[in-house]
Amino acid sequence: MDYAFDVAIKNRKLLESFIENHTLEELNKVPQGFNNNIIWNIVHTIVTQQLLIYNLSELPMLLSEEMITAYRKGTKAERDLSQAEVDTVKGLLFSTIEKTKEDYDNKIFQSYNQYRVSTKSTLSNVEEAIEFNNFHEGIHLGYILALRKSL
User: Fold this and answer.
1) Contact (Cβ atoms closer than 8 angstroms) between residue 150 and residue 32
2) Apex CA 137: angle with CA 107 and CA 23, to 5°?
């Protein structure tokens, strides 16, 4: 699983670069033809990782219920984030992955509730969830690249 965690960290570094290289206004802008913005996509990846790995393993998630509710599958950008909120998100990009790796290495993921994802694949264990999460984050990286071109 070291490779999967390495991929996750590299993807999160790419997401961090969008935060660092765009203004708050650009991060919050929903371009015409899109439902969401750059920062929504970034927070959504963090929330989804927690839902797929911790929630389906029946373990406490590392995020507030408010954040999970606002950025889970089926939501859209409802408000602009403040700079302080963006700074918090930036920290969560890495702390959530680092904690997941630590928890995985400490073997805390003992059970997993199967879940069928939108691609019609079924996740049956935490290893599959970690691998699928990398795929999911790649999809949202693609959305962010398209959003950036539309700014």
Assistant:
1) yes
2) 120
Alpha carbons 38 and 15: distance in angstroms, whole number: 9
Domains of the chain in start order, with CATH, are 2-149 (1.20.120.450)
Following DSSP, what letter does each residue of 52-116 receive, concatenated? Answer: HHTGGGT---SS-HHHHHHHSTT----SPPPHHHHHHHHHHHHHHHHHHHHHHHTT-------EE
- Collapsed DSSP state (helix, strand, coil) of residue 122: strand
CB-side neighbour CA atoms (13 Å) of 95: 10
Rounded-to-integer distance, Cα 26 and Cα 88, Å: 17
Per-residue pLDDT of the chain (151 residues; tens, 9 = 90+): 999 999 999 999 999 999 999 999 999 999 999 999 999 999 999 999 999 999 999 999 999 999 999 999 999 999 999 999 999 999 999 999 999 999 999 999 999 999 999 999 999 999 999 999 999 999 999 999 999 999 9
How far apart CA 38 and CA 109 sit, in angstroms, is 31
